[in-house]
Amino acid sequence: MESNQQKIYEELKTLVLAEYPIIYIVSHEEDRVTETINEIASNLCKVVYFWDCVNGLSSVDRSFSARTSDPIIAISSAEKMKDDENIIFVFKDLHFYMDDRQVIQALKNLGRNMTISRKTCFIVSPVLKIPVELEKDITVFDYPLPDVKYIKGIFDTLCKSVSKNPEIVVDFNKDEEEKLLKSACGLTKIEIENVFSKAIMNNKRFDVKDIDLILSEKKQIIKKSSILEYYDSQENMENIGGLENLKSWISKRTRAFSDEARKFGLPEPKGILLLGVQGCGKSLSAKAISSIWKLPLLKLDMGAIFGKYVGESENNVRKAIKTIESIAPAVLWIDELEKGFSGMKGGDSNGTASRVFASFLTWMQEKNKPVFVIATSNDVSELPPELLRKGRFDEIFFVDLPAKQERIDIFKIHLQKRSRDINKFDLNLLADKSDGYSGAEIEQAVISALYDAFDENRDVELKDIIANIEKSVPLSVTMKEKIDWLRNWAKNRAVPASKLEKI
Fold it and tell me: Would you say the pTM of this structure is higher than 0.90?
């Protein structure tokens, strides 16, 4: 396993040697970027000058210092330095000034000067902001977050440091350590160091239980996004009645994101599409998969992607993808996928939905980050056919109304969840009475029965549940034609999520 840090170093060094005039590095990790630039400068015998709006322009050794907060003066000073000097300039957070036409012109002049000298200018900022006037003068470089190998170095250094303290216990086997390191992917170096230290100080013990703490740290990234939502999932497959084919498929891929799987020759799974009747466990399955695999669960709000300004929607989808990939490995849940692309059928006059859809499809096909996509849909007729082509998803599952044995299992789950003795209920009778009901409708019948019993100051009985079943009309009746059509469509096009025949 090779760190990407060396690759970053080599790529930036090549750009400097090739005399690219202005290199814009997009990163929140100013310290890591600075370390890399200093290393390149040392290797190439160049002098580094840094500028920020507080400390002004100064060399690393402080032999030169000009305390100016004005970026125009700093850029002009850089341009006027002797051409025969091997110099690297680093301007921090210059994006704040990219609307100033004088700053834009000063950078154009600097870039022109750089092309005939041996100097290089780096702009380091967490935000990419390039005026159209400078698009041809600037090269953009995305500085990646720490990879597993780099995180392993942080982990080893920390373990070595705490080993001197007999009160602190570090307890990981090889597989647990791998899960820990991968759980920290998507955090900056400082965030990793902080959360590792927090885990240790929490109870003087650092072990596999602290993975949940690390995953919770990733919530901070998602909270800043209006398009993505972080889910704390405590669900498991035991809370889902039936769906044995789906459960088996998921179980076989529990170790799919491990290095062991890569060495065995297995690719990382791409995702699944869950089609089917509303209320039959599609969303619950997404939450359970995240919990079983110990991966963060992110929900993508397709509606929030579409903005009112030109180009806003396309920028939103790019931003969402970048955020998702930054915290990979992760599970991405897209609920009711058909609603996100409904505008493609006749109403997409300006082509926005088509462009967003194309970006999303390209990412799904070519993504090289471990992001497992779980998309759910209640209406396959509204889905663009390109989405259903092989290669977009690993598998398409059809989630039908529960069979009798599955309904028995669902009643067991919901009665036990509410601390009721299942032996006091005729589950066979309940399953017969609830033929054609979805899992969500069965749960609601149990809840309504509990309310009835509570109102009468007694415990819930079999008759209460039956009464609530009989007075409700299930979706299988109100939407019979649509469900029949969906079953016909799925017959030869999707894998049944359940092994059992509907009876």
Answer: no
